[in-house]
Automatic annotation (TrEMBL):
Family: Belongs to the ROK (NagC/XylR) family.
Membrane-spanning residues: none
CDD domains per UniProt: ASKHA_ATPase_ROK_BsXylR-like
InterPro entries in the record: ATPase_NBD (IPR043129), ROK (IPR000600), WH-like_DNA-bd_sf (IPR036388), WH_DNA-bd_sf (IPR036390)
Pfam families hit by this protein: HTH_24 (PF13412), ROK (PF00480)
Protein known as: Transcriptional regulator, MarR family
Domain of life: Bacteria
């Protein structure tokens, strides 16, 4: 019988990433505490921390002497001078760019005009990243990695399968942008990316099973299950916006009928309001009308809320998540969607499952997709292990 060989390089990479995130979430932690909470032996931790330190990723600060016997302890933290990450959120009319330090702290945020022409959009993203770095008095040489959140079906390999809102098909955006930025680039569906950001930087960092439901021009879903983002065998899982909630109902952009997003997306809500003669042009004006007690706006959102509640009940019955997080327009309109949604949800979800599920509103809201790009960039950076950085990186300006 042949004993399976252990891939020691993979184990080191996984342990390096684990320790990186523990330090990110607990700045000032000691190596002893890292060993206690990670279960990794002290000798292995010393090797990894030494490598991260030599790579300029982690820094040590020695505690002030206490007068007690023994060696002084050292506090570990990520070094913000290590470099920057770029998060890019692509929409038809605008491209939003966020620059962060390696711990995910945003330090620059700007938007540039978008384009439905791939080459023009990629060029705009590159120029926007350069401008955002310039605002920090940093060069592109300080950029470690970039992540792109796209309103698109994205394959496991990061290739755009189809982006209906901008008309892109079968494009390798990651490779094209990587050539222009000269750093690794990771591309993902915008809602999956937002779910990853919710776990890394948001209020769900300690939740192993949650569903992120995001309203924009459509409705998207991110399934964070058993401690990781679930993509399915082809990378396309989570298209909950095309769950059928009204058999034979409204036509949807996907070509089907009765889809969830045909009733609850921004586009659907604004179309319903327009059909009733209401003048709301965007989500902000819809919310403002509801806050002012507008009966038409409130009636339309109550109807959308009932459809939302049915869709959430289906998700709960099938997946049994610990939490459902509402983002995007669903978060902005939550006060006027949730009363009707909760009534429908309680009537249709299995009580034995539903009683353990939280329904929460994302604290990230409008920045979720761009921060999803940061989360992708951080993943890309860690997958190219920082313990093997093969070149010295210029020090960014503080």
């Amino acid at each position: 019988m042949t004993r399976a060989r252990v891939n020691s390089a993979l184990v080191r990479r996984i342990n390096s990433a684990r320790l990186f995130h523990m330090i990110r979430q607990n700045p000032g932690i000691s190596q002893q505490k890292l060993s206690q909470i990670s279960g990794i032996d002290p000798a292995t931790i010393s090797i990894i921390i030494n490598n991260l330190e030599s790579g300029g990723i982690v820094r040590r600060d020695t505690d002030a002497p206490t007068g007690r016997a023994g060696r002084p302890t050292t506090a570990l933290s990520l070094d913000p001078r290590a470099g920057y990450l770029a998060g890019i959120s692509v929409e038809p009319d605008a491209i939003r760019i966020v620059i962060s330090t390696i711990d995910g702290t945003a330090c620059a945020d700007l938007a540039v005009p978008g384009s439905t022409a791939p080459e023009a959009a990629i060029a705009a993203a590159r120029s926007g990243v350069t401008a955002a770095l310039r605002s920090l008095r940093a060069t592109r040489a300080t950029l470690l990695a970039a992540g792109v959140a796209m309103p698109a079906l994205v394959s496991t390999g990061g290739r755009i399968v189809f982006a209906p809102n901008i008309g892109w098909r079968d494009l390798d955006v990651a490779e094209n942008l990587a050539q222009k930025l000269k750093v690794p680039v990771r591309v993902e569906n915008d809602v999956k990316a937002a779910a990853l950001a919710e776990h890394l930087f948001g209020a769900s960092r300690d939740i192993a099973d949650f569903v992120y439901v995001m309203g924009r021009s459509g409705i998207g879903g991110g399934l964070y299950l058993m401690g990781e983002l679930y993509r399915g065998p082809h990378g396309l899982a989570g298209e909950i916006g095309h769950m059928k909630i009204v058999p034979g109902g409204r036509a949807c952009g996907c070509g089907g009928q009765g889809c969830f997003e045909a009733y609850v997306s921004e586009k659907a809500i604004l179309s319903d309001l327009a059909a009733r003669g209401h003048g709301a042009r965007d989500v902000a004006s819809v919310r403002k009308a509801c806050e002012a007690g507008d009966p038409v706006a409130r009636a339309v959102l109550a109807e959308a809320g009932r459809h939302l509640g049915l869709a959430l009940a289906n998700l709960i019955n099938i997946i049994s998540p610990r939490r459902i997080v509402l983002g995007g327009s669903l978060a902005q309109l939550a006060p006027f969607l949730l009363p009707a949604a909760m009534e429908t949800l309680e009537a249709n979800a299995l009580a034995a499952i539903y009683r353990d599920v939280e329904i929460v509103v994302s604290e990230m809201s409008g920045s979720a997709a761009a921060m999803g790009g940061i989360a992708l960039a951080l993943q890309q950076f860690l997958d190219d292990p920082p313990v093997r950085l093969d070149r010295a990186r210029p020090t960014p300006s503080p």
